[in-house]
């Protein structure tokens, strides 16, 4: 087998990171390297040409997921012509939806990666990126009369509890209660 070009190697790496990002958010960072590579359509052996270790992949995936989240926030503000409050409302509506609850692979890395980061962190870099990402998300949610960290905790807690109670009426009740708490005047 011949060597792959620099461009193909970069494409392979991008595909592995994107695939791992979805798998880690859906199933956790305990997903094996072999499973990530198979889902990316590459061989297990190709992993070590791209990454020094699984920890390095977790670090890169965490950075990728939070960069993607920040880009979504920026796009939301642009979509509402710079109206941050409208972008925040749209995010709350989407975040506390059944669709988001049921699709962790494309969902928020704050909720999806929290347990894994808390347990082993994937490394010091993943934990740092996670903490920075949480802080940036809270800053995005902040408003003149709104504590962004409190809003994020409410979103996060509601999503995690709703996912854990999926299949029971309580799941939708949790989403609705958090939505009311975050959107109706107190």
Q: How would you state the average pLDDT, rounded?
A: 93
Instruction: Give the helix tally.
Output: 10
Class computed from helices, strands and strand pairing:
mainly alpha
Major sheet: none
Oligomer: single chain
Top keywords for this entry?
single chain; 186 residues; mainly alpha; 10 helices; 75% helix
Write a structural description.
This protein is an all-alpha fold and 186 residues long. The chain is built from 10 helices and no strands. It has helices spanning 6-27, 33-40, 44-50, 54-79, 84-95, 98-101, 109-119, 124-141, 148-164, 169-183. Helix 4 packs across helix 5, helix 7 packs antiparallel against helix 8 and helix 8 packs across helix 9 (148-164). The longest helix has 26 residues, at 54-79. The radius of gyration is 18 Å and the shape is globular.
What does this entry show, briefly?
With 186 residues, the chain is mostly helical.
List the helices and strands and how they pair.
Blueprint: H1 6-27, H2 33-40, H3 44-50, H4 54-79, H5 84-95, H6 98-101, H7 109-119, H8 124-141, H9 148-164, H10 169-183
